[in-house]
Each structure stands twice: as structure tokens, then as C-alpha cells.
Fold this sequence. Notes:
heterodimer; B: 2 domains
Amino acid sequence: MGEEVKGEFEPRIIGFTCNWCTYAAADLAGTARMKYPPNIRLIRQMCSGRVDPLFVLKVFLRGADGVFIGGCHPGECHYMTGNLSARRRYSMMKKLLESVGIDPKRLRMEWISASEGIKFSDTVKEFTAQIKGLGPGPFRHIETEGKEQK
Amino acid sequence: MVKGDMYLAQASDEEILKQGESGGAVTALLKFALDSGVVDAVLGVKKRDGNNRYDAVLDLITDPEKVIDCAGSLHCVSLNIARNVKEYLGGAKQMKIAVLCKPCDARAIIEIAKRKQINRDNLLLIGLNCTGTLPPVVAKEMLISEYEVDPNEVVMEDIEGGELIVTLADGTKIAKDLLELEKKGYGRRDNCRRCNVNIPTMADIACGKWGVKEGEKKTFTEVCSDKGAEFIDNAIKTGVIKVEPPGEDAIEERKRKDREAIELSNKCEAEDLKELREISLDDRLAYWLHMFDRCIKCFSCRDACPICYCKKCFLEPDRGYVKGGEVPPDRMFHLTRLAHDGDSCVNCGQCQDACPAEIPLTRLYLMLNIKLSPMFDYVSGMDVEQKPPLIAAKDEEASIDDIDIFLVKGEAGEVVPQQ
């Protein structure tokens, strides 16, 4: 990865964002020229309910330092209850990560509606700073193809 | 008769009364179920060749006269009843079956019934009290080295008040402290140590001998569902079992023994998981990765797990999560299973029994399950109507904005085990 400056740890964060709210908020933040750290890479999903717990696990195992999930506020889901299921899965994942020994603080979920560009940029800033504080993720040394580098 | 009623029951038939361990009520009920046509078959557990109590086999019985083969209780077994019903009996979708089950078997059946892979309506679950089972090979070793008896001489095992009591053919009883045995690597299966469900109230009928006076040949029977009530009613009417109401003291005695067994299991749980709970996250991760790397990818845990529910398994290479032909497998292998089954695990221990690499899987699943239970107000395998927590989002949750509601609830409800 090209962004790593000598000596300083630059986290890699994967963000799963819902098409209807958080992705639109990221778009808004971009068009409004709000600044937020470039450490987050967004993957657009149709709904936060599409975020399978396995996605989160796979992303961690392939070397991500943090995972962010963004969805619509409860009651505003385009598919009625997708975000409610997402919240249950997220709660389960937090405990799962803790049980196997991955710091649950590396996983974060936030409701960000399409108009909340500021909330999006603030959240990314805050989360990036938090991950910087936690240091590299447990599988950071693994390259994306899944082969360990010695 | 209604749900919640309790009885002391005894078989009317002389032969069954003699063969049965505690009055033969269960055998008599099973025979009655077949005779009266309530079920098409009985799924029971019997000794292989009629005498090997360390190698029990499942038997699908359709002849009422053969039910008696299943009389008497066996402790050195851990048969995968739920998985067998699902896989080899077509999920009981075509036939009505009476199933003899321990609490974990009944819970596993209920969990898989929620996923529509077993038809619960066609099953009559006859639950048996259980305070743990022993792994057969280790049990034999233990009988030789600790009890200094010939395993073939044993006619009965029993776990009572923290002791493992072995009865020999000549009537001698030898009791040894269970926890002492377990310190030496003998005793119950790993998961049974930490299991706190002793009375199968999730089945249709719960039978056991707690609450029965020493020496009396009777079975304490609790009716746990409407289906069970109807069945027992008919059985009493036909006269296959004789019943009497238990006294207050008998009910109290049963409760006390259950409480004691739960206390013991809580103690074992605190002891077993203490180290894993106390070490740092990094150490815990290192521990589990080390364990996962022992895996030889035999898929036994998946094949044994009674609640593994995907029709097309995520662990197959074409699903894109776990590469084919790699040993040890990608860590996704075990984490996928944990993510899929962690919320509904019934602590039956089949995965760990099947594992040739002896990965302590039940500890991992239990550690997660203990945390999830208070979060979602969910105890797996208790109520067939209660949906698995991850898909049970309720409409009223739409008005709650707090991301962490379940986590907060989990923290509040989490019972810190007593050290």
C-alpha cells in the first residue's frame, strides 16, 4: 500500500455503507469538500442488512485494522428492517471478536442518514484516530492474497 | 392432566418393571406409544449386541416387543440424536417418531426444527434427566485404573451429588468424587462439566429419578407440553403405567438436586473458562489461532453439529470463503462456524467429540454463547416458537436509535461467574 509514510502507522479501514444513507452521506461529504482521512475504503452495499458477519471476519483476517458499518437510522431503512437485523449481527460480532481475541473496538457501526455528511466525516476522523491508537490489526502482516509474509 | 403436572410413575407390566432401572415407566410409555399408534417408530438407544454398555447404538424400533431392548440407562454414550433425525430419518417429515433424548438432544432438535429441517409436530420427545455423560473409552480406562474393576462387570453408573457411583453385577457400589476424577482427566465429557440444563423441560415429558426415594422403583415424570399431557392421559387410562402424585418433599428434593447440579456446573464453568477469560486479547487470539492451526480440515465438527443449518455449506471451496486443498484451513473455517452457530449453540459437545485434533471447541462456543444469551434474552433450544436471535428483529426496535442497546443489555445481564 502506497500511503504508508515512514515510521507512521496508517490504518486500513474497510467501510461497508448502505446505498441509501451512509453511502449518500459519504457522497455529500465529498461534494461539500469536507475533509476526512483517506484510510477508509468504502464498499457499497444495498443495505446494512446485507453485511454478512462473514464479510467482517474475512476483512479482518485479510489484514484490515478496522471495520466500519454504516446504515440508515432505525425506522428509515429502505427495506424496513434491514438495519435492525444489522444491529443484532453487529452486537453478536462484537462479542464474537472479543471471544476469539480480536479487540471489539476495531468494529464500529453508526447510523448516518443521507443528509449527515458532517456526521460521516466526523465518524471517520474519530474512528481512524481510535484505530491509530490501537495500532496495527492482528492480521496486518498478511498480504491481500492471504499469504503470510515472513 | 395439564402442562406442569408431576407424577411418580411405574410400569404395570411385570417384565418391564424388572428390566427398567427406575420402575420402567419410560419403557412402558414408549411401548404404549407404538401399541396405540401415536407414533410410527421409537428412536431409542440400546447396547450393542445387547451387552456392550460402552458402545451404544441408536435403534429405530417399530415392533412394540423390542422396545424393552432400550430399558435401563446408559451413561457412556454421546450419540448424535438430533443430527440422525435430521439426516437419516428425513427430519421426521414423513413419519411420527418418539425420541428418547437428553436435554441437549432435545434442545438441538428444537433448534433445527426452528430452521424447518425437522418437523417438531411429528416428534414426541421423551426427555431424560441428565447430569453428564462419559466418553466410553476414557470411562473404561478409568474403571480399570481408578475403580479397579472389570468394565464388563459394571451394570449401572450414576452421577449423584458430585459423585460418580458405579454398581457392579454383584451389587457392590463404588463412589468416587467426580471433580477429583476429572482433575486426572477422567470423568464426564468436557462440555457436560459445564452444562447446567439437567431436566429436559423443553421436551414433551421429562423423566428422571430425582425426587424418588432411595430403593423405590419409580420414575418422577413431569408433563411439559400439551402433547405430552394428552399422551400421558391416554397411557394412564389404558393402564400401562401406574401413577401417584409426588409429595411436597419429593418435588422439593428434585428441585434441590437440580440446584446442586447447576451449582456444580457453574463452578466447573468458572474454573474451565477462568484462564481464557483472564488472559489479554492478544494472548487469547494466539491461543485460538494455535488451536485452529491443529485443524486437519476433516469437516467432522460441521458434520457432527446438530444445528449447522446451511443447505449449501459456506466452508465448501466454491463459496469463496475457505480455499480448497489447504491444511490447516483458512481461519475462516472455524470463525464461519462460530458466526453461524454461536448464538444457537446448545453445548451438546458433538463437535469436540468428533474432532480428531482435539480442539476445545465447546469452550469457544460456550464463551460466546454465555455473552449472547442475556443480550438477546435467548436461551437456545427452549421454545420452538422463539426465532433465532439474529433474525428476530422486532418492529418496536425501529423506534430505538441506540446502536448499543443489545450490548448494554448484555453487560447488565451478564452473570459474572463466582470464583
